Amino acid sequence: MRVFNFSAGPAALPLEVLEQARAELTDWGGSGMSVMEVSHRGHAFTELAEQSEARLRSLLAIPSTYRVLFLQGGASAQFAAVPLNLTAHGAAADYLNTGTWSGKAIEEARRLGVAVNVAADEAGSRYTTVPAPGALRLNPAAAYVHYTPNETIGGVEFPYVPDTGAVPLVADMSSTLLSRPIEVSRFGLIYAGAQKNIGPSGLCLVIVHEGLLARARPETPSVLDYTRMAAHGSMLNTPPTFAWYIASLVFQWIESHGGLAAMAARNRAKAELLYGAIDGSGFYRNPVERSCRSWMNVPFMLERAELEPLLLREAAAAGLTHLEGHRSVGGLRASLYNAVPLAAVEALVAFLREFERRHG
């Protein structure tokens, strides 16, 4: 039985994509082999790579002045790759700290000798808010400004794109890329781990303006060097071919379901339905300031915390899985990525109301 999967990542994939991958698993494109068995240097896979990049460029309306990279290591590798590619040792960079993942990016940058200026830190609200646009303490001499538009653990999302003037804006969009339209030209660099809205874990997308290439430190590992990877079509080494293939199917699925505008409408509707149920109850609560609540990750808790283990057991029995909050914060969390259907959220809301009726 297929369950409704609310995992924060690796997350749900579209059923149509999984079914196509299953049908092609042992014979991809008439090759008599799995896509996992063909050479990444061969014509068939290089054609897939070119087509998948073209689809991604079309979906996001990526300008021709940006390079698109399909890399390994997930978003955490980019915590190091960004400073290695964009700063000299000891150079300054601005970071906005809004939770766990931005905090990890700050820690990694400091390990690599970046003079980090924390231009905003929402610790005072326990990371349940984002800074007001006018509150950013930006350094005009910074090499870049880094922020995390959506914090998956805290469920906090920026309702605006920071204005950084002439300083390149770098965004960790792991949990938001492809969930809605974005204006790529407002960013110097975007990176995103695949395991939310793109495909399996192990793949990371990087979209980088050409003007930021050829700046890597001499000690930058080749596989983290944007310029070298761009020059080799992301195939300086063997890429994660199966993850790239699944991503290409996901891009097609998004196209066939109306593109990013349609994804945005679906995702907004799902989030509004769940937040409405939580806010309309005296039994559950969400800790995040309403103006910066995430569409993608909805943390919540019970007023009677001792009931949470029971709720999780009953939810799993009802086919509603992966509702545990992150181990660092506890509570509950439902992640509502593209592949999570509205029917899943409707089923979750009905379950939560019935659980409240019996235990409230």
Please tag this protein with its features:
16% strand; 360 residues; three-stranded antiparallel β-sheet; 9 helices; globular; Aspartate Aminotransferase, domain 1; seven-stranded mixed β-sheet; alpha/beta; Aspartate Aminotransferase, domain 2
Model description:
A hairpin with a 4-residue loop joins strand 6 (150-151) and strand 7. Helix content is 34%, strand content 16%. It contains nine helices and 14 strands. Helix 3 crosses helix 4. It folds into two domains: 28-256, Type I PLP-dependent aspartate aminotransferase-like (Major domain) (Aspartate Aminotransferase, domain 2); 258-359, Aspartate Aminotransferase, domain 1 (Alpha-Beta Complex). A seven-stranded mixed sheet has the order 2-10-9-8-5-3-4. A three-stranded antiparallel sheet has the order 11-12-14, covered by helices on one side. The protein has a two-stranded parallel ribbon with strand order 1-13. The protein has helices at residues 15-24, 43-60, 74-86, 100-111, 226-231, 241-256, 259-279, 308-317, 342-359; strands spanning 4-5, 66-72, 92-97, 115-121, 145-147, 150-151, 156-157, 169-172, 189-193, 203-209, 284-285, 297-302, 320-321, 332-335. It is an alpha/beta fold and 360 residues long.
